[in-house]
Amino acid sequence: NRTSSMVGRRRGSRATRGSQQPQQQRTGGPRKSLREPALFAKEAGYESEVPHEKLTIAQAKRGTPAIRPVRVYADGIFDLFHSGHARALMQAKNLFPNTHLIVGVCSDELTHRYKGYTVMTESERYEALIHCRYVDEVVRDAPWTLSPDFLKKHKIDFVAHDDIPYTSAGSEDVYKHIKEAGMFVATQRTDGISTSDLITRIVRDYDLYVRRNLQRGYTASDLNVSFIREKKIRLQNQVDRMKETVKTVEEKSKHFVHSVEEKSQDLIHKWEEKSREFISNFLESFGPGGAWVSLPLAHNR
């Protein structure tokens, strides 16, 4: 059908990309190949010769021409980028047959003000997003709330996010006006994984990770660990290594003793069998009615 052929042509065009341009210059326009990172959005916004008419969700689901993909926007912090983030973006990319996925990533300054400190810097988070296979374009220093001017600037058709009200910046739901405008499309959260969960694991097992990194060559200063604490941790590492050595020796000793016991038991069984065999042969020869008693010489005596 028309949609399939258009999507096919679009995929074919992605595979015929020439030499890769420097990352700083690659802004705007569709990504041509999965061999390349996604694009950074232009400061001036999206420019196209094709008129950008408003779409309904029904129209978007039927499919659009290859030259007019549905521009879906998803935003977030994306700190410690993980499978939950990737799954949400995969859903957003596959909302419609022909989707150009734009991902907004908030800056450090904005994130620290409204949500809290991040593990990764904004540059690291931008880099993580442009290397996600589902992302076509990344907006750096994305706004916390989406204004009509921002939506117009980037020619955004729909905004994708999970449907749980996002309370922030004094609002009960920062996506409320997007939902009321009919531009919101819900994705599903992935249970059991979040940036907060990962940070909780690190905090919970703090000592283990400090010891791990000291063993790998990081200094106490790198890890913000005091001199006394560093010595204590290194001493504990030595004690643990000694315990492991003793444990290994014990295991080997147990194996040796078990082997000796098995051989001893086997030897005792063989002795018992030989003893019974010797006694049986002796009785057959010298016992009452034995072969030795039956000899003529024995009767003459």
From TrEMBL:
<dbReference type="GO" id="GO:0031210">
    <property type="term" value="F:phosphatidylcholine binding"/>
</dbReference>
<protein>
    <recommendedName>
        <fullName>choline-phosphate cytidylyltransferase</fullName>
        <ecNumber>2.7.7.15</ecNumber>
    </recommendedName>
</protein>
<feature type="domain" description="Cytidyltransferase-like">
    <location>
        <begin position="73"/>
        <end position="201"/>
    </location>
</feature>
<dbReference type="InterPro" id="IPR004821">
    <property type="entry name" value="Cyt_trans-like"/>
</dbReference>
<keyword id="KW-0808">Transferase</keyword>
<comment type="function">
    <text>Catalyzes the key rate-limiting step in the CDP-choline pathway for phosphatidylcholine biosynthesis.</text>
</comment>
<keyword id="KW-1208">Phospholipid metabolism</keyword>
<feature type="coiled-coil region">
    <location>
        <begin position="225"/>
        <end position="252"/>
    </location>
</feature>
<feature type="compositionally biased region" description="Low complexity">
    <location>
        <begin position="15"/>
        <end position="31"/>
    </location>
</feature>
<keyword id="KW-0443">Lipid metabolism</keyword>
<keyword id="KW-0548">Nucleotidyltransferase</keyword>
<keyword id="KW-0444">Lipid biosynthesis</keyword>
<comment type="pathway">
    <text>Phospholipid metabolism; phosphatidylcholine biosynthesis; phosphatidylcholine from phosphocholine: step 1/2.</text>
</comment>
<dbReference type="InterPro" id="IPR041723">
    <property type="entry name" value="CCT"/>
</dbReference>
<dbReference type="InterPro" id="IPR045049">
    <property type="entry name" value="Pcy1-like"/>
</dbReference>
<dbReference type="GO" id="GO:0004105">
    <property type="term" value="F:choline-phosphate cytidylyltransferase activity"/>
</dbReference>
<dbReference type="InterPro" id="IPR014729">
    <property type="entry name" value="Rossmann-like_a/b/a_fold"/>
</dbReference>
<keyword id="KW-0594">Phospholipid biosynthesis</keyword>
<dbReference type="Pfam" id="PF01467">
    <property type="entry name" value="CTP_transf_like"/>
</dbReference>
<keyword id="KW-0175">Coiled coil</keyword>
<comment type="similarity">
    <text>Belongs to the cytidylyltransferase family.</text>
</comment>
<feature type="region of interest" description="Disordered">
    <location>
        <begin position="1"/>
        <end position="35"/>
    </location>
</feature>
<comment type="pathway">
    <text>Lipid metabolism.</text>
</comment>
